[in-house]
Amino acid sequence: MPVPGDSPGAPVPSGCSSPGRALWVVLGSIFLLIGAIGVLVPVLPTTPFLLLTAGCYARGSDRFHRWLLTNRLFGEYLRDYYEGRGVPLRTKAISIAMLWGVILYSAWRMDHLHVRLGLVAVALAVSAHILTRPGRQG
To answer: What is the distance between the alpha carbons of residues 89 and 104, in angstroms, rounded to a whole number?
Structure first.
């Protein structure tokens, strides 16, 4: 499972000390946690944090990097993204439906117009991002 710019089987760069590699793993784990939260919170994007996780793990630990790319929850998603296969149309539809459901409910519960407008602006931007990513059947 090659990753552009990284080779999962390659050793960790020799210039990176053991504490440096540990820092990459810690940062990657923090980004993974944020990305996992993003799965449940429509306004928080998942993909950038998973990509940051992959980059950090690639620099810190071949074992963690390989685990991420073979993980049953995120592995296929990351491999598809790296290989340019796109996001399944069903995933796009579910993502947009969940996003707008939560945003509209939140906007309905808000008393301030500027907060409502901000929520809708975020939803429009995230929807545009999702819709402009390559799509595929499946």
So the answer is: 22
- Cα separation, 104 vs 54, in Å, equals 33
C-alpha distance from residue 65 to each of 18, 34, 75 (Å): 16, 17, 10
If we measure between CA atoms, which residue out of 67, 1, 2 comes closest to residue 28?
67
Kindly report, residue by residue over 57-110, the tens digit of the pLDDT.
999 999 999 999 999 988 888 888 788 887 788 888 888 888 898 889 988 988
Distance, in Å, from the CA atom of 35 to the CA atom of 120, rounded to the nearest integer, reads 22
State the Cα–Cα distance between residues 40 and 49, nearest whole angstrom. Answer: 14
Rounded to whole angstroms, the Cα distance separating 58 from 6 reads 7
Is residue 127 within 8 Å of 96, Cβ to Cβ? yes
The CA distance from 33 to 46, in Å, is 10
